[in-house]
Amino acid sequence: MTGLVLTHLAKDLRLEWRAKDALNAMLFFALLVVVVFSLAFDPSAAMSRQIAGGILWVSLLFAVVTALNQAWARELRNSVLDAQRMAPASAASLFLAKALANFIFVSVVECVMAPIFVLFYNLHPLGQTWLLLLVLPLGTWALVINGTFLAALSLRARSRELLLPLILFPLTVPALLAMVQATTDIFTGELEPGLWIKLLAGYDIIFTTAGLMLFEIVFHAE
Fold first, then answer.
1. In the predicted structure, residue 125 carries a pLDDT above the cut 70
2. HSE-up of 131 (CA within 13 Å, CB side)?
3. Which of 168, 175, 181, 198 is the most buried (most CB within 10 A)?
4. How far apart, in whole angstroms, are the C-alpha atoms of residue 156 and residue 158?
């Protein structure tokens, strides 16, 4: 299975490197949200630490949706998805590779956004900054794993661009709450974010397992 995952992942990375559709869309949208909020508010340093977590994750959530709408659309071209259904390979490997590719794309966007975000909001975290190295990947995976599954589920829907956020946003609320609270606790240094990080890790494990188990049904459904 590892070889199949790496093969699908390499294919998605090559396609994105050539087209850069997902990266450009996410970067533009995320930066737009960050800039608009920075112009709409003029918070103090203390207030910036309180609201920065929410602005960061909400901007990433909306940016991820723009990329996920394109994640499976490429597979419809030239009947690639139909060919993959007939291949003697596990559907779970395709799902995992697609989720990993989306995770890499969002992580690249986060690396570009991080210095800009700090600059616009003049952030100086008071808590343990290294914990962001746990919160960011766990939060990103929570958005990506559900988004990849639901994007495949709504692939053949007539209004999939509208259907995906309508399903994804309510399902992501527990993870979004944990992401925002953990990030805010790190920025303000008032509380320990350990409980929220554990909640986020548990959310990732549950929905990753469910996605891998159920994707076979979604993949072969018409």
1. no
2. 23
3. 175
4. 6
On whether the CB atoms of residues 9 and 97 are closer than 8 A, the answer is yes
Q: Which amino acid is at 127?
A: G
* Residue 88 pLDDT greater than 60, yes or no: yes
Cα 10 to Cα 113: distance, rounded to the nearest angstrom: 25
Reply yes or no on whether the pLDDT at 208 is more than 90. Answer: yes
E strands, 87-150, in order: none
pTM: 0.87
Going by C-beta distance under 8 Å and a sequence separation of 6 or more, which residues neighbour residue 135?
179, 182, 183, 186, 193, 196, 197, 200
Nearest Cα to 191, choosing from 201, 180, 202, 200? 180
